[in-house]
Write a structure and sequence with these properties.
heterodimer, A: 320 residues, mainly alpha, 2 domains, B: 167 residues, alpha+beta, 5-stranded antiparallel sheet, two-stranded antiparallel ribbon
């Protein structure tokens, strides 16, 4: 429980609690609105509901934007408390300090994508004259809120089970040569890179051709293989050390906090890649701009990764 | 151009599938445990396809190999008798396990508990305990070898190596 003495942990959990409380109020109000909403009605009750829904939507938009910012702060928090936990050198050791860490991180990333979808849905709904997606977005928010509840529980379960006495593994033990972290599907670095670049080209081609389902599948594959490529290859050029394989150390000051930008562009590219398919399922709508954003963010991510390798080669004349 | 894009997309997807299939077909299945050796006999070690359970090295040379067979027939493989002793420590079947070592002098699999051990052999993990079927001066029995191994009194310790080899 000593971990609760950390300023970052206190700020994070306090912020999460406030946001969760507001989300809970919005959730209760959403259930009332979704049950009684009738846009064709001119009754005072509907008029009151419309006024209240405007307030609730504003609250939800605010909380979801803050949740997105809190994901970055969560990563910063676990990275900063690595100095308090024996054995941890970066967020990798802290996140694997107990069984709640990795599920929490995955849930936060999933919520990031769902939150983004909700914000797009809300934006489309508010631009239309007759709120065509109003009920859909409320039901979607209710589903998101259930995940927010699971996340809130995991937040506290995770931090309350971090011991400052027990030694955890550092990133070299988790991801490095001594760890059980092989390249998947029996691939080697060259074939992994081939798949990485082919998947990138596919995301661009599918965005140009506007195939939402195929782009959805390829984007998820790109997320997985991009992660593996960064851990097994591109990361070693960021650290300039062939044995240093870690997705978290690049978030630190020593590497110019490049990890935030790198993972940020990847998540944005993948998010825009999958969002059109989800929008099509929910509201039978496709937004052409999202295809453009997919190309832009994935391209920035790929250029950034590739530049690290090329610059290292130009400077040193050798590959790692 | 627009007609060409779907074709290119299909070709690229096919390329990914091909890469993954070729990679998976090359997969070498390493053996770390062999089940069902109820008769507790020494099993043939196929060089390059078996992992030492303790040091995780692939066994490419069986000169000093060892095997441990649990009462239920599960068999583990080792490239060095010292690895077997380290691994066996604390196992529930430590006493009942049937242990085999490859004899350096007769090239046969022999009972590890009846074998004699040199102290200065160039074993893969540099512990130095090479098994022999025939006793000679300077060789020690299994129990002495086990104690020396667990105490760390073996050739992997520079002081012991200096004392034994005079280097």
């Amino acid at each position: 429980m000593d971990i609760f003495l950390s300023n970052q942990v206190q700020i994070f959990l306090f912020s999460e609690s406030i946001i969760y409380l507001i989300s809970l109020i919005a959730f209760i109000a959403s259930i009332v609105i979704v049950k009684e909403w009738n846009f064709n009605s001119t009754s005072p009750k509907q008029y009151k509901l419309e006024k209240r829904s405007f307030l609730i939507m504003t609250i939800i938009v605010l909380t979801l934007w803050i949740k997105i910012a809190l994901l970055a702060y969560f990563v910063y928090t676990i990275d900063s408390i690595s100095v308090l936990i024996p054995g941890a050198m970066c967020a990798a050791g802290v996140i694997s300090a107990n069984q709640y860490g990795n599920p929490l991180l995955f849930l936060k990333i999933a919520l990031l994508f769902l939150t983004g979808i909700w914000l797009i849905l809300n934006s489309l709904d508010q631009k239309a004259e007759d709120y065509p997606y109003f009920k859909t977005k409320l039901w979607f928010y209710i589903a998101v809120f259930l995940l927010l509840s699971a996340e809130f529980y995991l937040d506290f379960a995770y931090f309350s089970h971090i011991s400052t006495d027990d030694t955890v593994q550092c990133c070299s033990a988790i991801f490095g040569l001594s760890g059980d972290n092989h390249i998947p599907l029996n691939l080697n670095v060259l074939t992994l890179l081939a798949i990485f670049y082919i998947l990138y080209i596919l995301t661009v081609l599918l965005s140009i051709q506007r195939y939402p389902f195929t782009l959805f599948v390829i984007s998820l594959l790109f997320l997985y293989f991009a992660y593996q490529s960064v851990v097994h290859f591109f990361g070693t050029y960021i650290y300039e050390l062939p044995s240093h394989k870690c997705p978290f150390c690049m978030l630190q000051k020593e590497y110019g906090f490049v990890g935030y930008f790198l993972w940020g562009t990847l998540f944005l590219g993948v998010f825009f890649g999958i969002s059109n398919f989800i929008l099509k399922i929910l509201i039978s709508y496709e937004d052409k701009r999202l295809y453009r954003f997919t190309i832009i963010f994935n391209t920035i991510f790929v250029i950034l990764c590739t530049l690290y390798v090329l610059i290292y080669y130009i400077r040193n004349g050798v590959w790692l | 151009m627009k007609k060409f894009l779907p074709l290119l997309t299909i070709l690229l997807i096919a390329a990914i599938v091909a890469i993954v299939f070729i990679s998976l077909s090359k997969k070498e299945k390493m053996i770390t445990i062999q089940k069902g050796n109820i008769q507790k006999l020494p099993l043939k070690i196929e060089k390059g396809h078996v992992n030492d359970t303790e040091c995780k090295m692939i066994i490419t040379d069986t000169t000093y190999a060892a095997e441990a067979v649990a009462p239920n027939g599960d068999t583990w493989f080792f490239d060095d008798p010292g690895c077997m002793i380290k691994w066996l420590k604390g196992k529930p079947f430590e006493k009942e396990a049937k242990l085999w070592v490859k004899a350096v002098d007769t090239k046969k699999w022999i009972d590890a508990k009846k074998a004699w051990y040199s102290l200065t052999d160039p074993t893969p993990m540099h512990y130095g305990f090479g098994a022999r079927e025939v006793k000679k001066d300077g060789y020690i029995n299994f129990e002495e070898m086990r104690l020396k191994m667990l105490r760390g009194e073996n050739m992997s310790d520079p002081r012991i190596r200096k004392r034994l080899l005079g280097l």
